Amino acid sequence: MENVQKSQIVSIVIPTYNEKDNIINLIKRINSELNGNIIIVDDNSEDKTGEAVKSLGLENVKVFIRTDEKGLGSALRYGISKALEIGSSFIVTMDADFSHDPIYLKSMLDKARQGYDLVIGSRYIKGGRIENWSYKRKMISWGANLLVRLLLRSSLKDNTSNFRVYSRGASLQVLQCNTANGYEFQICAIYKILKSKMRVCEVPITFRDREKGQSKLSYSQILNWFAYVLKLYFSS
Ligand SMILES: Nc1nc2c(ncn2[C@@H]2O[C@H](COP(=O)(O)OP(=O)(O)O)[C@@H](O)[C@H]2O)c(=O)[nH]1
Ligand SMILES: [Mg+2]
């Protein structure tokens, strides 16, 4: 197990919505990989995900159940600001559904400690892979990344991954994405970080589709995402 120095607090922010069948095992897996704070931001899930995590009673796990706000981006901002408040040097974001394997945390954090402000767990660089995703989901992800690379001139291959490590400086930048409340948050975050000329890198991961629970990516989320990217393009 990795020893995290006190001066370099690591926090792992996980947004959850109806992830009761995944989150408990994921927390156990993360705790076996590293010492860090785990911050769960649950949007009042009907399946009582938040309550299930609370009942674990783990000291390093904080649960925030929001009843007044909803959305992936808004939950990520909330969790990132809580992580900053407790003095985290590195803030990881990852999904609750095991698509992001905690096994990669160490290598991603190593890169962050080398001075990269944003480290992305990437499916689209050499060594990265996707397993069991439908052809349709692969096409959506591929098209979304092509669009971001072309329109917003991103140098990154995987712009839509939520498996990331942010430095404190990068976290402060992404908190400015205060209108990106859904899946578009990932794009806004990259846009802000690249614009401020921070150091970015990608680490290859194997992404696996969830085995339990359901994806929350709806057609209306996809449309919102698309409109947001166009808005960024025309305003830049
Ligand atoms: N708090 C919160 N979490 C969300 C919301 N929408 C999605 N998530 C979480 O964000 C992560 C990614 O969502 P997921 O449904 O797996 O999207 P997909 O991987 O693109 O199909 C998971 O941990 C979800 O539980 C939301 O509105 N609020
Ligand atoms: Mg998922």
Polypeptide structure, described:
By secondary structure, the chain is an alpha/beta fold. The chain has one domain: Spore Coat Polysaccharide Biosynthesis Protein SpsA, Chain A (Alpha-Beta Complex), CATH 3.90.550.10. It is 40% helix and 19% strand. It is built from 8 helices and 9 strands. A 7-stranded mixed beta sheet has the order 3-2-1-4-7-5-8, with helices on both faces. A two-stranded parallel sheet has the order 6-9. Helix 5 packs parallel to helix 8. The site of guanosine-5'-diphosphate (GDP) has 19 residues, from strand 1, strand 2 and helix 3. Guanosine-5'-diphosphate (GDP) binds next to strand 1, strand 2 and helix 3.
Bound molecules: guanosine-5'-diphosphate, magnesium ion
For the record, the count of structural domains works out to 1
Q: Assign the structural class, choosing from mainly alpha, mainly beta, alpha/beta, alpha+beta, or little secondary structure.
A: alpha/beta
Mean pLDDT: 96
Number of strands: 9
Domain Glycosyltransferase 2-like: 11-170
Protein name: Polyprenol monophosphomannose synthase
GO molecular function, one term: dolichyl-phosphate beta-D-mannosyltransferase activity
GO biological process, one term: dolichol-linked oligosaccharide biosynthetic process
